[in-house]
């Protein structure tokens, strides 16, 4: 494969001139530029992105660190981030932290050694202060971290919308079904919004919470249906994620009890399965969250002013799971 | 940040010696190695992965090119590929081709310019001959391409297993529900296996196929339920993917017709939703496909002998959707 040296030789100029033309084209004469371009074409020269990264101290690579990829929120986010990066001339290096704090830090070190221009992260650990120690910009998604720019959905308002929708469907004893998450993750805000909105209507929200570690289809199903048997007064369910609703209401017990049709249900996320199930849900714009995060990161990389905190709106999608009661 | 020059100075050796120690440690004396390590620690030296890539002509980066990421098969594959790459000292650069041939080729050029050591690809286009033109190794996933090593699931046998399971559940007029895919994609083999196995039992398989371009929840639902109304003799459904089954059998019409409980159904893939729905399905080992593909690629990169064609087994998971008829 042709190198920059071959190009210089063929064009009859110095290697430094070729390099200058590639990095600061405005300082090279038009005549010389033409000669070099001709040589490049004849030799089918492909600039070496790695060498240019070293030269320019810019790799045009963005790192994305996620707890896992194999989950609808993260795969949609990754899809949007890749697309937006590509459209703006950046490549994506993808790292999975697997919900281990050491691995999250290790991924940052690896990305740093690979001279990424910046990192997007969905951090999952209490102590995220290490994120501030890097020379390159970092943008946090789905979590606010002091000193780090962040992109969020309006989870609190999403909780309010869910409460209002269940109340409008006649619910006076709603239950929140979900997993116990740390305070800094978005679930907490959803619960707050839901409970506060209920309070405004003189209603007290109930809880059916599963420990995050023991979360799994069987545990979730058994916990929920046992809870519903013991608490026959429950007349509405707010599932903290569409995937929770999908697990609870596509199973044999859902058919057997017909619970899905007897009381109003609201989900959260707006995944496709909510459409399949005709589940009313709070839609959060995951693709746009990814796009905004890349946009903020690129602005930071390029030394421009970027938002420090950006909250995207959520909205209620009304479907049969609540409409049939209204 | 300390450079290799600072390390050489502090250790009192030449830059070439430090470089040699990093790339071919066996040629440097133990005494010198110790001196260099000490200097590195004192200076908190972090090797520059980009510079090393240039030096060693090896970046330890693997590219993964997928049509999209936001779909269960590809997000699971990506998750497994990232994990396996990391465990073997490689980083993952992720590219989405978005089902455009030009973009697939463009992604290869970008990855080439970034000096990846090799590429894994789920290619979606008739003419994939360009894949052979690269200097670095390429491994194809889910598709056989002449001259390119490939990792496949045993789709043909999966089709046979699905047919057998429906027949064992009493089906004499089964239908295949799916989208029309090009010959080189795995769906074709699934259909072949299904039809041939039916023939062995003197049964003719029926087809309810949706054009790939117009595939979407509403079209799928309408096409299927209209087909079933017009063909009341149908007594078994083979969904070519679990996601097709999920779209058809979680909707209001599924509840209204109770079709899911009236006739045996078999899916394909083994996604979580098949467990939630108690859907019998043909499980394909997606994670292992990703791992094997990375393993083959690394062997190729390192100049070792790697399989040219690798087919992973599929297996039937029996659940209520067929068990209730047996």
Descriptive account of the structure:
- Chain A is of the alpha/beta class and 326 residues long.
- Chain A has helices spanning 4-11, 15-23, 30-42, 49-56, 72-87, 101-113, 155-168, 186-200, 217-230, 242-249, 252-257, 259-262, 272-276, 286-301, 320-323, and strands spanning 61-66, 91-96, 118-121, 138-141, 150-153, 175-179, 206-210, 237-239, 265-269, 280-283, 309-312, 315-317.
- In chain A, the strands form 2 sheets. In chain A, strands 2-1-3-4-5-11 form a 6-stranded parallel β-sheet, sandwiched between helices.
- In chain A, α5 (72-87) crosses α14 and α7 (155-168) packs across α8 (186-200).
- Chain A is elongated, with a radius of gyration of 26 Å.
- β2 of chain A pairs antiparallel with β2 (91-96) of chain B.
Averaging pLDDT over every residue of chain A, what do you get? 91
Global shape of chain A: elongated
Which runs of chain A of at least 5 residues are low in confidence (pLDDT < 50)? Answer: none
The biggest beta sheet of chain A is recorded as: 6 strands, parallel
Major interchain interface with per-chain residue totals? A-B, 54 and 55 residues
